[in-house]
Amino acid sequence: MKGNNTLPKELNTGEGKNRYKYKPFNALVESLKIDVSYRSDKNQEEPEGLGSFFHDSLESWKEFNLSTHFAIFVREVSQYCQSLPQILYHKEDIVRILEDHLKVKNSHALEPLLDLVTKLARDLEIEFYPYFERIISVIIPLTKRQDVKTLECTFNCIAYLFKYLFNQIIADLSRTYGLIAPLLGEDSQKPYIRRFAAEAFAFLLRNTRGEKLTDIINHIFDLFNEYPTDTYRDGLNMLFYETAQDTDNKLHDGALNLMRELLNKSCRDSSTCSNIESIYSYRVTTSTTIALVHHVKSENFGILWNFYLDELENLQNILLDETDFANISQESLTKIGINLSLVYICLTVRKGSRIKGNFKRIFNIMRNITQYALIKNPSHGYLFFQRQYFKTCVSLITLTGMNGFLTGGKYILDKIFDHDDTDCVLVFAHNVANLRWEHYEKIILPYIVKYSSTHWEENPKKITLFLANLLSTKNLSIPPGTISSFITKNGLIKFPNAKSKNQNITDGLLRILNQNCDWASEINILNQVDLETVDMQPPHLTLVSAALTVISRVFIPFSEVFNSLSTCIKSLAEFLKSTNSTTLSAFSNGPFTHSSPYVLMQNLLGQVIDTLASICRLTSETGDMEKLVKLWDLIIDEILLAYGTNHVVLRGVAGYLDLLRSSKKNDHLFNTKNLEKIYPHLKCNLSSFIHQRRLYSLQILAIFDQFPLNASESSQIDQEFCDIFSIGLKFEQIETAMNTSRNKTILLRNLSSLISTKRVPEFYSEVAPLHCFGVLTINFSDLWSDAIQVLAKFAELYPKKFWILIYNEFTRFNDGTKLEQTGLSETAIQFYFKEDQLFSKSVFRTGGISFECPNLLKYNKANEESQNLIFDKFVNGCIRHYISVSVLFDHLNYYGLLIKTLIEVPHIAEQHSHQLVPLFLQFTDSKYNSVNDNMMDIDSAGSKSNMVLFLKLFAKFKNPRALHKSAELKDIYLRFLTNGDIKMQTLALNCLLTWKHKGIVAYEENLKNFVDEAKFRDELSTFSLCRENGSIGFEHRDE
Fold it and tell me: Where would I find the U3 small nucleolar RNA-associated protein 20 N-terminal domain in this sequence (predicted)?
């Protein structure tokens, strides 16, 4: 039967010469539709006289199905079906025969047998119903068959039985549902089985009305609650969607009855469960609504949209009629919340395209219920209603644009930002920001500025964290030149002056910086924190970081903020300087940091320096630059030289130096003497896998005066300065992408050309190879070959220095801590990215039905992130501003690229075999099971590729006998010949051939044929090991 899985389904109208195009099993299954409600039986002729549909169909199938099994069936049943009266009389025998033959395994007669079942039901009508359950129980096991035609016939048979016995089945629909429920997912079923079962049973459900519909809905969820699973819930989603939808992307006449019952069921269940979103009936209702929004055309969807609005208006009128707010029941508000969630789905799925442009009615409803949603400290029942209200407001405002704002959005925004519940307002504002609404800066930002100013005294910590998150992301962009009463010409926010200093935001931010802090206790708090903790009070370190973020984007005169920032810099520098190995060991196992618990303090120090430079650049006046110059010794000699591997410190120092360099008065600070002092502390950053570390290090080094190139006879310029730092800086400043790869490779070739001139001063001799090592860590293969060529060129000119540098890179793999350069622990980084991936799931689709929407996921993710802003998990609040862009580093790939570099210069690698061979043996011992095993088994694909590269390198050596531990190497090569991998055998053979044994070289071609799949058979048939007339000479047998 497997051949039926690729039957031609349609003519090929695309490319290719074949007349038909064939589809795989999954494609054929997706194209099937099990729905008999719209199929007409009029084309089938009525039997004449006392004839029957069963007999006519049997006679027809005799000609179309010639299988042995069907012939046996015909012989058994023919004596009972010559006329309709005879069928009525022998119905028990006919049903028994059908049952027996449907149970035959691997039958080729299933299609006619299933068709005859439906014909018998059509003939017998009400007389067939007593046998209905018996027949269904025999047919259902056939759904496990992996044959498309059988599946189609099976479910069509079930659907036709439902159609012909509708009047009998509808009297007790729950019994029939009990039979079909396993196919919907009560048992583990594949998606297409659930879909076919849903399509079949939907015929019965869409024609059920009144109390019977209520009863069957209750019965369906009662059965589901006994064994609730995700697959079963998906089956119910399909069932209710198929029930509500009609042909040509329309809604069925019974769709509103069904959705009303589902809505009522959700409301009833909500009275017994506090967590509304976990109620299965509610989740099924929302999923069904999502599917209908997806697949019903906008001109037909208005019926459902108006139904939801009618329900909301009825509930709204109940609220408005109640004069005493205390008398409003939580049940009423929960019902409104459930209806609002469905309205939110209609507005959000497909960006509200199913709703025609008239939003006036929903805006009026939202206006009327606003007063009930804006309650401070609501109870749990109110909380669900309140959250749905805010989510609907966000969807309305962002999707309707400026017209919606003018229609009714302004009134809603005014009321929201008059609300005293700071948490709700900040969540709403941040939610809209996460969606990157194009009118955010014009409409929402003025509300935020005013609200933050008026509520600062009540909740300064949360407002600080909120503003920091808002201003540190790309969600808010205020370009210089923005015209606004609260925006300066430089794009800084101006908060209005408050009556008292306690209400002034700028003064409050400075108070956070000026507050005395025991940094050691802060480290202790970080060391004991639980990453999963919610509602934890933010430590002072987090508040200082947030305040710095806000200060850098707020208008504060430099003269007012300089003392606070400089004091903070000195305090942090003194604390870090006072730490020693004793205190380090006491906190070395914290959940946030790796190897040093003080990395977050270093990050904070770098942020303070960066903020100081940023404010001075935008708000400084004459004479303010001299204040920065006085900090030179502290920032350069004490901070940069001590913590120059921290990318946040590097960023702050780069901004500080760039600002000083802009004034010619400070040129004396950027002489080559200071460059010589700084470079040894920063050169290790050039090979870092962290892009920011390479970028800011090169930016700092390129700011200083440079040494001239060595003199050249061909050069006509008296003095040319070496621009090797500038080349590297340009390379790092260009984004790594396909459309920019050519520009980056040109810069690498410029670097190679500069090295080839031999004019690079000794001071810069290590810059090019170190930076190329850094390039090899970039996850972009187009750059690797050019970087390797630069390293090969350098190796030809400076072989000793090249070997020292590349050997140091290899030794980094001996100590894992040298590869972990972020400073943050792996646990913290993984937790951070796990939080970011909560909503990054694929959209569930089956049979063309989608129960999710990318835009809806986007809005839900924005809302969830905004909720976590206020009830923030500690890890995000602490490392959000410090985590580097690239924290993932493919160690094995980098190791392989280093070996590829040596392959370009094998003579240098061979000269240093005393260091290289131990590296190879160590790699073999760690990545393979054991060098002493008879079989060299590989434990990963990355290890195998690197072993291949090692063997390619050794195959290029000229004098293998002189290698360090050559006997061990030879033994490893011989063991690789026993490996089943032909590629590894070939490389091992090439390595052995470098020994040039006379007894082996003479048979080089024969040996290579043995490891060649194309020539192996021929060589094996001709090569002889016979001592008398064999292919191996007697003098060569010992070798």
Answer: 944-1039
